[in-house]
Write a structure and sequence with these properties.
The protein has helices at about 10-25, 55-80, 100-115, 125-130, 155-165, 210-220, 250-255, 295-305, 350-365, and strands at about 5-10, 25-30, 45-50, 95-100, 120-125, 140-145, 150, 170-175, 180-185, 190-195, 195-200, 205, 225-235, 245-250, 265-270, 275-280, 315-325, 330-335, 340-345. It has two domains: about 5-70 and about 155-225 and about 330-390, FAD/NAD(P)-binding domain, CATH 3.50.50.60; about 95-145 and about 225-325, 2-Layer Sandwich (D-Amino Acid Oxidase, Chain A, domain 2), CATH 3.30.9.10. With about 400 residues, the protein is an alpha/beta fold. It is globular. It has an eight-stranded mixed beta sheet. The protein has a six-stranded mixed beta sheet with strand order 8-2-1-12-19-18, sandwiched between helices. The structure holds flavin-adenine dinucleotide.
């Protein structure tokens, strides 16, 4: 097979994969039915978290990503120059707080497990937590500081990764939907049909976020990625009063949950622009993008419980997106054994911004037949935990 690949999707995962492969000298074409960062990667927050992940494979990928972000941000700035907007990388650290005694016990046990897996998770007294965040409610029950948590501006990060990929020679076709496969005489992948014509390549990488299941289905392959709606509030600009990513410990439970009913937890952060982002909800409502007022009012109430001064803040807007949910809570990264030449980089749920560049390095190594930077088998489309969720094509 040649060193050529078509990437379906110009979100952050597709952009990052394009960059890593093009930098390795591959012939890369990215195809998106809309524009770069037109999907979930601009309808989210930009948290790069280790704090919300318990010991396991996703945490290992996040820890690897955390080391990559530091160098990637510097490389992007150097390559793209001062004319390109900053990705607003801010290694500000996270502060996770519990508001009840039961929540405190769960949070401290969770943090102890994470420390065993190499996460820097520091239990604070309430006074210490309020030194980090003077406006935090005094009534909190426990707090853990995670200095490794960081954030980026996700839309700009996606655009920067794509711009970098293009400078390495990747082609980008926007406003071009992939509509079906091109197969060779043996039934192997030979490219894609699109709304603007046929494109030939020996590999196709599905990086279509929450639509990855639909794209895989065009190739006759079942991939159980489902949309999981999330909504956020944005305040108007204000004096900088929140210095870390601050969230309540309920968030960790919501992330790992399979529940399709509405779940909310408060995740609060200041942005470089002076607004405060208050997230977020989790709900499986298909691709229904109607505003969920109940979700937004619950999010607001929880945020005020952590930062009472937010009761007086003006909300400027709300927005939402669809997380690419996987039933076994791990992204799919690798070649599909059911159709050689078809690859996946999808299903990152609420962590795709953070995990994007690590996913890209995994894909670039695996496609080139090199050892993956971390064990790739837990993310393989052939893994055992996914098998019960796969339907025969
Ligand atoms: C409310 C909310 C908050 C979040 N907060 C965070 C966070 O703080 N940190 C974090 O790491 N992650 C967060 N996420 C998750 C993160 O946004 C996603 O995991 C990530 O953006 C997925 O990126 P992607 O490139 O896989 O998909 P997308 O960005 O959705 O890109 C997929 C692309 O595929 C294209 N496409 C689809 N079908 C076709 C087709 N047939 N042909 C051509 N193109 C096609 C689409 O147009 C789209 O541009 C959040 C998500 C939500 C909804």
């Amino acid at each position: 097979m040649g060193n050529d690949v078509i990437i379906v999707g110009a979100g952050i995962v597709g952009a990052a994969c394009a960059r890593s492969l093009a930098a390795a000298g591959w012939d890369v074409t990215v195809v998106d039915r809309g524009v770069t960062a037109g999907g979930t990667s601009s309808a989210c927050e930009g948290n790069l978290l280790v704090s919300d992940k318990g010991p396991g494979h996703e945490l290992e990928l996040a820890q690897y990503a955390s080391t990559l972000w530091k160098t990637t941000v510097a490389d992007l700035a150097e390559q793209l120059g001062t004319g390109f907007p900053s990705v607003e990388y801010d290694p500000k650290g996270g502060l996770v707080v519990a508001t009840t005694d039961a929540g405190a016990r769960a949070l401290l046990a969770f943090a102890a497990g994470q420390r065993g897996a190499g996460v820097d998770a520091r239990v604070l007294t309430i006074a210490e937590a309020r030194e980090l965040e003077p406006d935090l409610a005094p009534s909190i029950a426990a707090a853990v500081h995670y200095p490794e948590d960081a954030q980026v501006q996700p839309t700009i990060a996606t655009e920067a990764l794509m711009a970098s990929a293009r400078r390495h020679g990747a082609r980008l076709l926007e406003n071009t939907a992939v509509t079906g496969p091109l197969l060779d005489s043996t039934g192997g992948v030979a490219g894609v049909r699109t709304t603007t014509g046929e494109l030939r390549a020996s590999r196709v990488l599905v990086a279509a976020g929450p639509w990855s299941g639909e794209v895989a289905a065009l190739f006759g392959v079942h991939l159980p990625v489902r949309p999981r709606r999330g909504e956020l509030l944005v305040t108007s600009r204000m004096r900088h009063r929140i210095f870390h990513k601050v969230y309540d410990a309920d968030y960790v439970g919501a992330v790992g949950s399979d529940d399709s009913a509405l779940q909310t937890s408060s995740v609060i952060e200041s942005t470089a622009g002076g607004t405060v982002l208050i997230g977020s909800s989790r709900q499986q409502v298909g691709f229904d993008s109607r505003l969920q007022v109940a979700a937004l009012s619950e999010i607001a109430a929880k945020a005020i419980r952590l930062f009472p001064f937010l009761a007086g803040a003006a909300v400027m807007r709300s927005y939402g997106g669809f997380r690419p949910f996987m039933p076994d809570h791990l992204p799919v990264i690798g070649e599909d054994p059911r159709l050689p030449g078809l690859w996946h980089a999808a299903g990152h749920e609420g962590a795709g911004i953070g995990l994007s560049i690590a996913t890209a390095e995994m894909i670039a190594a695996l496609m080139r037949g090199l050892p993956a930077p971390i064990d790739a088998s837990p993310f393989s489309p052939a893994r055992g935990s996914l098998a019960p969720h796969l339907e025969a094509a």
